Amino acid sequence: MMKTLFKNSNLFTGTTNEVIPNAWFLIDETGKITASGTKENVPTADQVIDLDGKYVMPGLIDVHTHAMMDPVGNEMEYLSETEATVASLHNFKELLKGGVTTARECGSVFDVDIKLAKMAAQGTYSFTAPQIIPSGRPMSMTGGHGDFVEGWDGSQTWGYLTDSPDEMRKAVRTAFKWGAKNIKVMATGGVMSATDQIDDTELSLEELQVAVEEAHSKHMTVAAHAEGARGIHNAVVAGVDSVEHGSYVTDEDIQLMIDKGIYLTPTLIAGYTIPKYGDGKLPQYMLDKARSFLDTYFERVGAAIKAGVKISFGTDSGTPFNRFSEASKELELMVSVGATNYQALVAAGSSAAQLLKIDDEYGTLETGKYADFLVLDGNPLVDIKAVQQVDKAVYQHGNKVF
Questions:
Q1: Which residue in 88, 90, 153, 161 is a FRET match for 237, CA 20 to 30 A apart?
Q2: Closest CA to 11 of 51, 62, 46
Q3: Rounded-to-integer distance, Cα 346 and Cα 382, Å
Q4: Cβ–Cβ contacts within 10 Å for residue 192, how many?
Q5: What is the pLDDT of residues 174-223, one digit of tens each?
Q6: What share of the chain is helix, strand, coil (3-state, %, to 5)?
Q7: Which domains are present in the chain?
Q8: Using H for helix, E for strand and C for coil, what is the string for 140-186?
Q9: Does the reported pTM lie above 0.90?
């Protein structure tokens, strides 16, 4: 069995708040780490790669992406499946180049993410992308966040329109049939939908409970788009696995999330980019919504982090001006609201892997796990912006992809 040795690195394994100097790690032909150590006991190998004293860290796990979307053109409706597929292939490549080695797609028209994930698993075609954890089409109420008309002929909506517990049960089972690994539910309104407000309560508690019951009975997770306080509360009571955004999360629900082990995916960058770059380029309703809640949003996320809520790294990449190549900016924003560098990196490593239930093989650079890692010039525990390095090296299963 061929072995590759990576030596002479400053290694951040993702398990402790430290960098191991003069570190090496050995991988087998499957791309898994079989041994690691420091310079005193360097083994022999078939291939040796000298990392020249650079900093090595686990690849980012982004639990909230929308590769079907164009963050510059911002076209959301009447997309054909071909357009969504080509956009996804392009954007996944950009995401990987930016350092994201695993991505959970949190809502994809025509189930494009499910189809690409199946093709990657089967080896039918080769394309450059992170490991894809698919959700397929999200669950939305009629007229709510996710009710976008799609297809050139308007033949489909972006989300399943679920207006009762029975319709929710049918939709979740359908998503399971096609191959979803996660169910995305729209518990509240959102910035990008013209028909509602951020704090509108959309899917009912009963509908959310059915989604959780069905998904959990089939080894799927549930991610809730939830921005308004009431919708967040419903999602937490229903027992979702993660609250996405959490813009108006209350102290009561922060504690309830801690008690129930529910993750918060802040996606701060999605709120940051709209008012920063959107003037004169986005509909006024989007700008008004984003500006109306941004300060509260950042304050509430900071309160959740400081209280000890489990945090998972997600970017909502694909939303306006939220470019896939710049996913690591989210780490800087998380630190700006109160996370330590280590907390932010863990959110993008072991914490995200635990949420996605892939932590037995991903999330840290330990023996028995896949060698998905980044090579940086700077130490991310000292300067979180080090991860934003444009020309960083990116490895998947021990193979250099960028």
A1: 161
A2: 51
A3: 14
A4: 23
A5: 999 999 999 999 999 876 666 767 778 999 999 999 999 999 999 999 99
A6: 35, 20, 40
A7: 4-58+363-400 (2.30.40.10), 60-356 (3.20.20.140)
A8: ECCCCCCCCEECCCCCEECCEECCCHHHHHHHHHHHHHHCCCEEEEE
A9: yes
